[in-house]
Structures are given as C-alpha cells and as structure tokens.
C-alpha cells in the first residue's frame, strides 16, 4: 500500500518553494520569486497555503518603507518534506 | 513556474533537484577573497625578504604596512555593515558558519600578532600564524567540499612545522610565502576558474 503524497506539497510551485528553502536558512520573497520563476501573486497565495499548513514561518516587516517578507521552513515543514520524499521513492521504486 | 496539479512523481523529483541545485549555487565561493588575502600576505613576505636583503627599511616595515592596511579594511567593512547595512536576500547555513569562523580567525591572528609584539619571537610567531591559516583553510575547504584547499591546508601545516626549525627569519618568510601560495593563491584561482566555468555553463 502506497503512502498518499501530501497534497500540500504535491503542487509544482509549493514543492519548489519548500525544496529551495530546505537548502537555506531563510530567504526573502523576492529571492524565492526569482529562483522559482513565478509571479508575485501566485507565489504569495502558495506561500500563504504553506504557512497555514504550518510548513513555513513567514515574517513580514518593512525596510526603508518597502515591505520585506522573509520565509523559512519550520520543523513540521522539514518532517513533511522528508515524508514526501520517502513516499516519492516508494512510488519510483515500485515503477521499476 | 506554473501550478498544475497533474504533474507526476518524476516531475516532483526534477523540481526538488532543480531547486537544490539553485540553492547550492548560493553556497559557492568564487575564490576572490582568498586571492586578494593571499596576494597581500605573499607581497608582505616577498617584500620583507627583499627588505632584509637590501636593508631599505626596518625589518618589519612591510608587515606594519600590511597590518595597517588590514585594519583599515576591517574598519571600512565594519562601518559599511553598521551604517549601510543591506539585508541579504538569502541566508545560508554555510554563510553563517563562515561569518563566525572569520571573526574567530581575525581575533586569533590579532592575538598572535600582539604576542609577537610583546615577546614571542617572530621566527616562532609566523609558524603559529601559518598554523592558524591551515586551520581556517581546512574548515573552509571541508564546508565547501573543495579538495585543492584541503591539500593547501596540509601543505601549510607541513611548511609551518618546517619553519619552526629553519632558524633565520628570512627563511621563515620564504616558507610563509610558499605556504600562502599553496594555501590561498593557487586554490583561489582554481575556485575562481570553476566558478566562472559553472556560471558560463548555466547561462
């Protein structure tokens, strides 16, 4: 019986955001937008979903009158990502 | 990047791999810091050897110039980070380690230089400095998984050990310059070349 893939992570952009943030300590919204090649609106919605799931910490502040959003992965996010990768491996091994 | 839900497991793996590779690029060092620092140390060693040969100035003249220049650069960096602080777009664990490592390295170097000004003989003080370079280089190389610097660190230690027994300061300077060449300058140029090659390949 295969584990079901986490629907929060099984989405292109959300998975890209999580994969990127897994490798760094924290990143600004603009950095994530640039690296995932996404639009600000779409990214903002997906980051919000990850935040609501408890996978991301999002800190919003102002710097020189400009909004500055910084994101980092939470412990729950790390666990979810690891489970997702494990489940992926099971699927791929079964397909061999 | 779109957001269609119909992508499969292989697509997931590709995204994960692609994003990890993107993050990895942030952790690369282009070697320019090693090259500048290396040439500064090398120039101070070489000029001291020439100075001792031709008796232009007092023996440590070029090391004093080097020290003053380093302190000025340190002061400039401190002022820049205090008053013109730029937020970094991304913070990596590697950069965090390097920041702390550099602070520790700077304090240790200053303490060793201070000890040379208060009684420790420079013929023994410089091997201790080389020992510190070796330690710093090995940690940097290990974090970045960069073999040329790992080799450079061991060469530096071998030369530091040898220079404990050469006796004259002029020979200590020769070994110091050689150590800097193998530990900083050569690995720095290799890192720079690899960094540029990778960037060209990814364009």
Describe what you observe in this structure:
The complex is a heterodimer of chains A (96) and B (203). Chain A is α+β, with helices and mostly antiparallel strands and 96 residues long. Chain A has 4 helices and 3 strands. Chain A has a 3-stranded antiparallel beta sheet. Chain B has 7 helices and 1 strand; from the N terminus they run αααβαααα. The radius of gyration of chain B is 21 Å and the shape is elongated. The A-B interface holds A 5, 10-16, 19-20, 22-28, 30-31, 35-38, 42, 46, 63, 68, 84-85, 88, 91-92, 95 and B 1-5, 7, 9-13, 15-16, 18-20, 22-24, 26, 87, 89-93, 96. β1 (26-28) of chain A pairs antiparallel with β1 (90-91) of chain B.
Kindly list the characteristics that best describe this protein.
heterodimer, A: 96 residues, alpha+beta, three-stranded antiparallel beta sheet, 4 helices, 3 strands, 54% helix, 20% strand, B: 203 residues, mainly alpha, 7 helices, 80% helix, 1% strand
What is the gist of this entry?
The complex is a heterodimer of chains A (about 100) and B (about 200). With about 100 residues, chain A is of the alpha+beta class.
